[in-house]
Amino acid sequence: xxxxxxxxxxxxxxxxTSVLGSVLLVSLPIVILTGLxxxxxxxxxxxxxxxxxxxxxxxxxxxxxxxxxxxxxLNQGLHVxxxxxxxPIVLAKLWSVIPRLFAWPPSRSxxxxxxxxxxxxxxxGVLFEIITGVLNIxxxxxxxxxxxxxxxxxxxxxIAGFLMHIAIKIPRMWTGLxxxxxxxxxxxxxADTRPEPYEPDGLVAVEPKPATISRRGGLALVGGGxxxxxxxxxxxxxxxxxxxxxxxxxxxxxxxxGPNDFQVNRTAAAAGISTELTGEQWRLTLTGGPAPVALDRxxxxxxxxxxxxxxxxxxxxxxxxxTWTGVPLRELARLAGVPEPKSAYVQSMERRGAxxxxxxxxxxxxxxxxxxxxRVNDAELSLDHGFPARVIxxxxxxxxxxxxxxxxDFRIN
Length: 413
Prior knowledge:
- By secondary structure, the chain is of the alpha+beta class.
- It contains 13 helices and 10 strands.
- A 5-stranded mixed β-sheet has the order 2-1-10-5-6.
- Strand 1 (284-287) and strand 2 form a beta hairpin.
- Helix 3 (87-101) runs antiparallel to helix 4 (110-137), helix 3 (87-101) packs across helix 7 (215-231) and helix 4 (110-137) crosses helix 5.
- The N and C termini lie far apart (67 Å).
């Protein structure tokens, strides 16, 4: 009991915890689902999602849709944006239940033991996902392990804890929501704020301190924090003038110039690409048919060109929509002698990094707007944006829109 006396805020109680919990109950499943869908979008059936081998945690896969073209942009915008917006609410929820985290003895029954295990998985999992997720957005890998692998397995720990906690606590949450009227709470000033009735195993302190803020003020503080996170985050997905407010995306501010003035996630210098590699000696090699076909850039520009306005969206949550012009991939497949490929393996000239190649599904190869882009916004691609040629496919994760393409292998099985 002595451990409980240090937590004396009169705001703590079943009602506040239940309100915060109900918000998370509705919103966290969206973050979970979009995260799992992002993993599927990377094409684990081709071994190009990280981690590649997940054992019995393997998800059912399907051909990631190419329509609408903004699908992955929406998916990752929700996953990253909503995940960041929920940080103040998650922290407020943890603050509201902190007396129970330090309750002693930690377990007095089997049911309480299950609750403690679910709390450990839930709290540990959500904090791990938040911290590593924010660091990934900043490209700050101080933790020394693979973000993608750790984030995937950490998500499953969190999901298990989340489901266990819901099963145990949802009746109690419903009781808490009915214990006070939200309308009355919003009308109650700080001077009239009173603690909830004390329960020996509850969250209310034995001797609560006087209120320094009303419950209305507490909810406004948490809501304001969530709104602030939305303001400094949403611009990375929405674009336009709102992008200037995307303060949590410093790397996303690296841009090209002129018509190429949009985000550069990986520069040519970082990828080891020089003008010597992309000059007149560059050739695109098409394989999979009776014989390899080699095309220089002049031959590609002489082919029928197609223009499409398509987004690029990255796993970190940022996106941009530009107008691309180039040769449809299905025309290149026909030229290679494989008019109906099952997939296409795209290889970059990049020598560094794990994403210098990508396998495209049949629907991604044959979509009329899937291009080997030669121009953007009616100008030549810059070297940083993939000159002499890059792939651009509707709804494809940005990292698989391979830059500095040197070969495409159209496969029939």
